[in-house]
Amino acid sequence: MRALSFSCTNMDLSSGQIKRLRAEGHRLKLKPVVTIGQKGLSENLHQEIDTALSHHELLKLRIPALDKTGKRELANLICNQHQAILVEAIGSIIVIYRPNQETNRFAAIIAA
C-alpha cells in the first residue's frame, strides 16, 4: 500500500524531523488511539483528539475508508483544527504530532 504524500503543517518541521517522528511512531508500535467512524468528526471526537494529543503528542488515528482526496481533506481538517502536523498517512491510518509545552516528550528526537 502506498503512503499518501500530503502535508498540513502549522509548524516548521524539516523533512528530517518528520522522518524521525515517523520512525518513533513505528518504534513505539503506536496503536490507533481514536477511530473516526463513517459519520465523520463530531464535537466529542474533536475533544477526544485534543485530549489525546495533549497527553501523547504523537497520535495515531484510524479514519474511514475514503478515496485519496477524502483522506487528504479529513487529515487537513484534523490537523488544522488541532494545530497539529501530519507525520504519516498510510491506508486508513494517519499519524499526527502536536508538541506539549509542559512535557515535550519528543524534543530530543526533533532536535537531533
Question: How would you sum up this structure, described in words?
Answer:
The structure is a single chain. With 112 residues, the protein is α+β, with helices and mostly antiparallel strands. It has a single domain, classed as YhbY-like (Translation Initiation Factor IF3, 2-Layer Sandwich). The protein is built from 4 helices and 4 strands; from the N terminus they run H-E-H-E-H-E-E-H. It has helices at residues 15-27, 43-56, 68-82, 107-111, and strands at residues 34-35, 58-62, 85-90, 93-97. A 4-stranded mixed beta sheet has the order 1-2-4-3, with helices on both faces. Strand 3 and strand 4 (93-97) form a beta hairpin. It is globular, with a radius of gyration of 13 Å. Residues 1-7 have low confidence and may be disordered.
Helix content: 40-55%
Strand residue percentage? 15-25%
Task: Give helix and strand order, one letter per element, not per position.
Answer: HEHEHEEH
Terminal Cα span? 30 Å
Which homologous superfamily in CATH is the superfamily? YhbY-like
Mean pLDDT reading? 87
- What order do the strands of the largest sheet run in, or round the barrel if closed? 1-2-4-3
Shape: globular
Number of helices: 4
